[in-house]
Amino acid sequence: MRRRLAGCGVVASCVAVAGPAFGAADIEPFTSSTPISGLIDDTCAGAGVVGIFTGTETVDWKSVSTPTGAHFTGTDTTVFRVDFPDGSFLLASQTSPLSFTSARADSVITFGSTLHERGTLYDANGNVLAFEQFHARNRTTIVDGRITADFDRGFLTCR
C-alpha cells in the first residue's frame, strides 16, 4: 500500500463516540496533527529505491451524531519529505477528503476517500529531477463487524 495513512484509523474511531440524547443531533468539530515517519519504495526515484519519509498528517473533521447513526466529513492533509541514500529527496503533499457514515455503531459502516498527491523529486544538489502525482480511491463497507466490500486503487505518474 502506498501513502494512504492514518485517516481510516481516525474515521473508525468515530464509531466509538457516544450518541446524543434521543431527538438531538450532536455536532462536533475536531483537528488532529500527528508526526509520521517510515520507509517507502514506490516513488519516482525508481523501482525498489527505498527512502525514509518524515512529515506531518493533519485531519480536520466534523461529525454529526443522531439516535439513528453518525456521519463524518473531513480532510486528511499530509506534508512530507522522503530522503534517499544517494542524497536525492522528494518534497510532497497529499490531500484526501474523507467521509464516513454509520446507520448504527454495530450495524453498517461505510467510509472512503479520494487521495491526490503532488511531489517534486530533487537530486542531492537541489536540482529538479521529476514531478510526481499519485491518485488513489478507496471505499470500505462493514456490516455487523465484517468487511463486506473493500476497494483500494492507486496509480503513480512521473514526468
Category by helix and strand content: mainly beta
End-to-end C-alpha gap:
22 Å
Average residue pLDDT: 83
Q: Main sheet, how many strands, which sense, barrel?
A: 7 strands, antiparallel
Cα Rg: 18 Å
The count of strands amounts to 7
Elements, N to C (H/E): HEEEEEEE
Helix content: under 10%
Low-confidence stretches: 1-21
How much of the sequence is in beta strands? over 45%
Count of DSSP-assigned helices: 1
Integer tally of domains:
1
What does the overall shape look like? elongated
Biggest β-sheet: strands ordered side by side in the sheet? 1-2-3-4-5-6-7
Verbal overview:
This protein is mostly beta strands. The chain has one domain. It has 1 helix and 7 strands; from the N terminus they run H-E-E-E-E-E-E-E. It has one helix spanning 7-13, and strands at residues 26-40, 51-66, 69-83, 89-102, 108-122, 128-143, 146-158. A 7-stranded antiparallel sheet has the order 1-2-3-4-5-6-7, covered by helices on one side. Strand 2 (51-66) and strand 3 (69-83) form a beta hairpin. The two termini are 22 Å apart. Residues 1-21 have low confidence and may be disordered.
Short structural description:
Helices cover 4% and strands 65% of the residues. The chain is mainly beta.
Quickly list its features.
159 residues, mainly beta, seven-stranded antiparallel beta sheet, 7 strands
